[in-house]
Each structure stands twice: as C-alpha cells, then as structure tokens.
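Aim 2, interim progress. The first record below pairs a target sequence with its structure tokens.
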Amino acid sequence: MALNLDSLKKSIESLTRALQASSDVSTLALPENIQETIRAGVIQNFEVCYEQSWKMMKRWLEENIGSSYVDGVTRRELFRLAFENKLIDDVDRWMDFHKSRNETSHTYDQGTAEEVFSDAELFVTDADFLLQAIEARND
C-alpha cells in the first residue's frame, strides 16, 4: 500500500521556505528581534519536519520490511534500518538531528538555537533525500 507523503512534503517545503526567508532577512538591515523571530520559525519548522521524517521512515519500514522488525527499536536502530534500506545515507548525522530536536524541546538558549538553526540547514537536504527515496519505492 502506498504511503501518503503529503505531510512530509509540506513540512520539507515549509522548512525550505523558512530557511529562504532567513537567508533573505540576513541580507537586510532588520532589527535583531525580527531576525531572531525568523530563526525561531526555522527551528520550529525543523522540529515539525524532523518529526514527520522519522515517522514516515518508520511507516515505510513497517510496510516494507515488517512491523516486527521496527516496533520497539531505538532511534539509532531505526536509522540503521533506514540506512540498510537506502532511505538515508548517514546514521550518525540523523542521530545528530535527533539530538538537536531533543534539545529544542528541553532547553532554549541562544547557543542551542544557533546550533539547531545550523542543523536545520543541513537537515533539509537529508529530509529531501528521504522523501525522494520513499517516493521512488512507494508502491
């Protein structure tokens, strides 16, 4: 059964737009509080896109290799299974994204925000890779 990928597509598109807005803003002489608000929007879009990505990854794996292999596994194991099935190309990078996502939900300071913002820029490419891999084998 083909998975409905709309939520993942929309979250990637939204993160991409937020990153583009941030890039556009950095070239303008806008007040720092407006720039911080836009960066916060990027971080929020990263959070949503990350959640959509790993959940869709899990659904695809359940459908294609069996829920008995996926249910109850750790996040690292889930990413390892995704790597083995060519949905992602770097388990450790996805673990870094997972760490960043956890940091945004448990603590918020300027240093953390800057780290997560940088990860969001890297993540959008990997999320798009995941989407393309699933689309190619979504039947």
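The second target in this work package is listed in the same format:
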Amino acid sequence: MDLNRRMAPSLHVLRAKWLEHKKDPKHQPWRFIEKPRAPFREETFSHFLINIQDESSSYRLVHLDPLRGGGVIIGESVHWLDLACWFFEPQFPVKIQAWGSSRLSHGINLTFSEGDTATIIFSCCGTFDYPKEIYEVTSNAALFRNKFFVENEYFGVPGLDRETFRLQHDPFPELAPEGGFASYMEKYKKLTQDSDNVKKVYNQFTVDKGHENMLDKFADAILNDRPSPCDEIAGHVSTYLAKLAIKSIELGQALPVLYEYIRPSIA
C-alpha cells in the first residue's frame, strides 16, 4: 500500500529520537518543578499532533463525491491515520472520535492501547503559500517537531540539535544551501514568484515524503522476500479507521475500534 508518510526519512528520525527519550528521559537542568511528586498517569502519555492546512480550490469534484471519491477523510486522511498507527506501534488504536465535515475540513482523535493519542487537524481553508504538513510530538516534558519533512526541531531534551533533510527534487541547489524550513520557503518563493499556477511547477520542487523509500523497500520485499514496508493489513486498518471517523461525525460521538478488525485472522 502506498501510504508513504510512514517511510519519510525525517519522520523516522523524529520517531527514533522520541522513542529514545521515552525510554530514558533527559531534561534541561533549568527545568522547573514546583513540588517533587510522582507523575499522574496522564502525564506519562505521548501526544502526536498532525496539522494539515490545504487549499480546497484544487480538489476535483469526484474527489468529494460520496459514492466515488468519499471525501478527504477517505482520500487524504488515510495517510495520517496510517502514520499514527505506524508511529505508535506496537500499540493499536482503541477509540476514535471525529468532528467537522466528512467531505472537507475535519478533526480526528485516536486513542491507543497504552494511552497515547494522535490528533489530526485537517483544514481545507489554508493556502498553497505555506507548506501543508507540520507534525508535533509532546512527551515527558519534551517537544519533537517536524516542519514539512525538511527540518526537525527538539525542545526540552539536552544534546538534541536541529536537523535538516534534503529535498526530493531541488531545482535551486545553489540557493539557501544550508537547508531546513527557511531554506525551503526561500526556494519555494523563487519557484512560484513568476508562475500564475502553482500546479504547473509543483513536481519540479518536492520534499521527501517517503515515496522513494517506499518503492525501494517494496522492491526489496519482492526480490529478497522481506516484509512489505506497508502491507495490505495496514491499508485495511487505515481505511477502517477512516470509515469509523465518518461514522463518528454522523453520530456525533466517540466509537470503539474493534481489535478483531485491526488484527484480523486471515486463512
């Protein structure tokens, strides 16, 4: 299944840094604690915020058709539902609550089996003048942030420095070679300043969302009999969660995620 976000290099690094901190938390020496006490259970959970801002004028009507396209929860948010499931493995989702429009702007909250949560905020009222995706993980008095696949920032953990990641396609390698988010924005501005349609130049300038890694790992799985980078069960789970999210919006309530649906027995 081509749910590529789980294969983005920058998100792999972010997840590894989060897991390391979760296993052995380290904090800044100036951290202020009013009164030493054992943490409440809720304070041990991690929270994954997936913030998506998009410009819906680019959507084809078939994408929004309830019978053929299904709306952006089915068409788009399956990517981030899959990402959240991959991020919190081996946990599994146990509850889902969604709100907004099943066709356009919406929010989805997933609760996982050990208490961690993921929240997807999808706005169709945004602008192509700014990158589409920002990811943030808060965990044990630390913040891990991914800025559109080109930069990771870390706060609250001593010794972790900002990291930058290469573009997948860069028509301006000589411009802002230091990389990172500010560099991306400078290159993007140059690319679009003389264009009257961002779609015309979109494929000339792309960040690494994991497409190349997904294809490489898929070929390796076939040639060398290795596990698929995103198998049919992962595709089934993200689709099942998307359908539950739509049902949650219809009913206006949280719904359980049935374990037998996400860990099915296949003869």
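The helical segments are 9-23, 61-64, 72-87, 181-192, 198-201, 211-224, 232-251, 259-262. This observation will shape the mutagenesis plan for the next reporting period.
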